[in-house]
Amino acid sequence: MCSSAPELKDIPNDVPFIMLQFANEAIRAGVRECQDTVDELDLKQFKVLFPPLSHCVHTVARMKGNGFFPMLDQEFNDKLLAAKLYSNHVEESTFRRMLKEAVSLEHDGDIVVAFNEWKEQLLSHLKAEDEILCPLTADYAMKIGV
């Protein structure tokens, strides 16, 4: 462990909430980069940029679905479950799989269509998360004394 790294006890309670927002913004930035390659029909560059973005989206979704969402649902009577945030991740994963298949088959037209469908679902679901999670995380932070 790096000697300059803070001890866990020294990390403010709101850091996980901030990191979640940073992750969503990083995903949005990656989508914009991929969109630029699609707009320019530079699908060779798209094929370089998309795999790490896909991995990031998958990792963040697992972090939310396996830890963050259940924690907030426990505190706020299943509001995230009721808002279908979990199922948004399942739907996003389906669109992402279709895009990965189009990329693997190297069908440029299918890649463009699949990217646009995935992007629409992903950005819509990130917006829904922001609208629900921002107030809940603020409430939770107040509850735990941040």
Please report the number of helical segments: 5
Structural class of the secondary structure composition?
Answer: mainly alpha
* Distance between the first and last residues' Cα: 26 Å
Q: What is the makeup of the main sheet?
A: none
Q: What is the helix fraction of residues, given as a range?
A: over 70%
User: What is the mean predicted local confidence, pLDDT?
Assistant: 86
State Rg. 17 Å
Estimate the strand proportion.
Answer: under 5%
The tally of beta strands, per DSSP, is 0
Shape: elongated
Q: Provide the succession of SSEs.
A: HHHHH
Give the low-pLDDT segments: 1-8
Overall description:
The protein has 146 residues and is mainly alpha-helical. The chain is 82% helix and 0% strand. It contains five helices and no strands. The two termini are 26 Å apart.
Write the layout of secondary structure elements.
Blueprint: H1 15-39, H2 43-75, H3 79-82, H4 85-105, H5 108-144
Keywords:
single chain, 146 residues, mainly alpha, 5 helices, disordered N terminus
Explain briefly what this protein structure is.
By secondary structure, this protein is mostly helical. The chain is 82% helix and 0% strand.
